[in-house]
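Retro notes (design track)

What went well: tokenization of the new backbones is finally stable.
What didn't: we kept losing track of which sequence belonged to which structure.
Fix going forward: every design gets posted as structure first, then sequence, in one message. First example under the new rule, 131 residues:
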């Protein structure tokens, strides 16, 4: 169990470190931190832009130009990374994890998870337990 907790803490530290990347503007770093800190909230471009006090279109363009991905993709990636941790560290049902991370339904969650990891959430959880 201690090993699993250490792995989760390392993954979280890596995400925080990526958010501190010096080549990004302070605005984008702030966006990334907000995404990580609010991964369990109903995140949206509009909510992030409101937090930063800039227009949605400006934040969208700036985020894409600096990171190479759309802000919605960054939100999705953060949610999948968190889902990986939850699948590793908890025995919560996949439907509960999906709902906690604000996916529209378990089917959508499974599709997005597989797109990012190459495995379904169930396959991912089983592969971790067999290691």
């Amino acid at each position: 169990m201690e090993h699993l907790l250490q792995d989760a803490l390392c993954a979280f530290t890596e995400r925080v470190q990526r958010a501190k990347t010096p080549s990004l503007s302070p605005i984008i770093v702030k966006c990334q931190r907000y995404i990580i800190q609010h991964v369990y909230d109903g995140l949206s471009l509009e909510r992030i832009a409101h937090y930063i006090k800039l227009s949605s279109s400006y934040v969208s363009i700036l985020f894409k130009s600096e990171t190479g991905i759309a802000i919605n993709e960054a939100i999705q990636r953060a949610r999948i990374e968190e889902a990986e941790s939850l699948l590793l560290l908890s025995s919560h049902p996949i439907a509960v994890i999906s709902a906690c991370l604000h996916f529209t339904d378990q089917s959508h969650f499974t599709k997005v998870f597989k797109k990012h990891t190459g495995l379904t959430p169930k396959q991912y959880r089983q592969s971790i337990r067999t290691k």
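Added context from the reviewer: The chain has eight helices and no strands.
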